[in-house]
Amino acid sequence: MAVENATTLTFLSDLTPPSLERTWLTSPHPTLPFVATCSSDKTVRVYSLTNFRLLSTISGGHKRSVRTCAWKPNISGESVLATGSFDATVGIWRRWDNYEETARQRQQDAALDIDDNQLVGEAEEDDDEWRFAVLLDGHDSEVKSVSWSASGALLATCSRDKSIWIWEDLDDGDNNFETVAVMQEHEGDVKCVAWHPAEECLASGSYDDTIRIWREDIDDWGQVACIRGHGGTVWGVDWEAIENVPSTSPDGSSGRREEAWKQWHLPAGPRLASCSHDRTVRVWRRQPKALVSAPGASGIPSIIRPSGADETWEEDAVLPGAHVLSIYAVAWSRRTGLLASVGADGRIVVYEERFLAASQMAQPMETDSATPAREGPVTPSHPPTEWKILAIVDSAHGIYEINHVAWTKRADRDRDESKEEEVLVTTADDGSIKVWNIMR
Amino acid sequence: MASEMQNSNPTILNTADLPTRLRPSVSSKSSTYGSEFFASTLPSLTEGSLDPISDYSQTPSESESDGELMEEPIDEQEIYDLISTINDPEHPISLGALAVVSLPDISIKPALPDVPESPLQTVTVLITPTITHCSLATVIGLGVRVRLEQSLPPRFRVDVQIKEGTHSTADEVNKQLADKERVAAALENGTLMGVIAKMLETCQ
User: Fold this and answer.
1) Class of B73-200 per CATH?
2) Which residues form a coiled coil (chain B) (predicted)?
């Protein structure tokens, strides 16, 4: 477990005041500098990333722990949050985007020396501005994860009842959602769902140890791939950015490899990262479509495909092992391509993917680090890369387990405004939420 | 719960024969922590100055003054005493008397062997259901896990498993008991918690 020294993960701030009970997940807003944290105390707290303070507490919607939440992307002027709870329901909440104005107003008020009582009154009013819009009822047991499609038109929810529901937000001003599909192929609790960064394609991870990929074929949503490989519950999945390119190795000669990478990556599409109770983080890649449909050039019979929609996914890499207990979450930065994982051992691990240096490629070509070459024609893969551990933080939340990790844009006053800095947000069992700065 | 008993005639051990540190609490305490016993017989000395404590008592708990951090080391016997008094869900008999839990099947190990300074420890409890197809094994396991999570400091990771070869669906039960999310959701399930609370009524 070699860690390179150049990169450090440093503690920036806690989000305060914290929940006094277990917090499960923190979802960064897609455009504005705040996050929403789900708690076992049945509430969601909205914190500012500018000053790390609590902005609002959303309560009263759920009868049990709030397990998950996600911000609807692609809207402006208003924020929409979906929350999933152990009470088997999904809540939709709305608020006009005026936190910034309210903050400015407060500063002006403070400058004018308006007395504190009035300010407190205003703060309380702010809380009321989160409007409960609708409760989506359908799951039979605890909702574990929710995710909005890139366009914001579809919401996927999953549950211990082994099903995934896809809802369409009709955006009719009346908060109507229509059930588009109910998928029940998983053989155990569905622990997580995540939409493809651009397409209407969904990935899910489950207690049945599989990852499944779902797409709409003509008019029907269905499973297009079932990915086996993990030896335990799949707790989390996350997609790569569409235009991600691995980092350049220190010897620099990677121009041609980047070209080759792009040529492979475009038809293959973004890869998927997953983490599991089996203590591994794995990366999966899709065989480019054109290659799959072409008959085997060598005459070896190709795998029989019952449907043209089916996709072939294979293991791209197993990341270097750095966790000794269950891994609960993985986050693949859409900005930098860095990957972070957290889990029951209280550790944060950050990984980077690099092109193999020319010197490392002199050995007999092994086109990818994980899968042994199959018989018959070798599937063209991407230029070889390797995953390196950049940083490990032990006991990041003291003795507590870390349930979630997310990347987001840095927004506090001390940031370097000349570049777009990124921070990690981690969420733990004791209710604490911490923000970390990555220094390279 | 089930109206028909799954095992109406279980083997029962005599509670007096079970290993414990609980019953003759004064004498067993004094034998294990002789220095404390000594100190408590001489209250005038210990009150007067701090020296007698630091000199004669080796327990770190006495040398610091805020309560929680300096718990006594927790050993297998203490874990056993916490869970052996839990009642079986279908009999008014304790898990200790039914030999569902036993001292040799409890172990405490560092949770992060690669980080020697870490205070995290894993308590592993292997439970032996009274019959191999007992559908209450999950409930018993959950009862043990809840009892330990409520009694032990948070630096303990609790791992409850069915002892190998003693249950037909052990893997399934083990996977459920190891799933933090399922356990958390079970704790919010009123019916299930009613059963667990009844099992734990007999615990001190």
Assistant:
1) alpha beta
2) none
Q: Which chain B residues contact residue A144 at CB under 8 A?
A: 181
Distance set, CA A61 to CA A65, A89, A124, A145 (Å):
11, 9, 18, 17
Q: Is the pLDDT of residue A369 over 80?
A: no
Q: Where are the domains of chain B?
A: 25-70, 73-200
Contact A382/B at CB under 8 A: no
A212-231 residues touching B, CB cutoff 8 A: none
Residue A233 in contact with partner chain B when CB distance is under 8 A: yes
Which domains, and CATH codes, for chain A?
A: 8-247+268-298+305-365+379-439 (2.130.10.10)
Q: Could you give the 3-state DSSP secondary structure of residue A317?
A: strand
Mean per-residue pLDDT of chain A: 88
Looking only at the bridges linking them, the beta strands covering B121-127 and B156-162 are parallel
pLDDT category at B10 given cuts 50, 70, 90 is confident
**Residue B130's Cα: distance from chain center in Å?**
19
CA–CA separation, A113 and B175 (whole Å):
59
For A182-210, how does the pLDDT look when each residue is reduced to its tens digit (9 = 90+)? 999 999 999 999 999 999 999 999 999 99
Q: Is B127 buried (19+), middle (13-18) or exposed (0-12) by CB count in 10 A?
A: buried
Beta bridge mates, A23:
A39
What integer is the mean pLDDT of B100-124?
95
What is the Cα–Cα distance from A79 to A131, expressed in whole angstroms?
10
Nearest to A381 by CA among A248, A275, A246: A246
* CB proximity list for B193: less than 8 A, separation 6 or greater: B186, B187
Q: The tokens of A195 are what?
A: 């939409």
DSSP A208-247: TS-EEEEEEETTEEEEEEEE---SS-EEEEEEPPTT--PB
A119-162 pLDDT tens trace:
444 444 554 589 999 999 999 999 999 999 999 999 999 999 99
Contact yes or no for B119 and A40 at CB 8 A: no
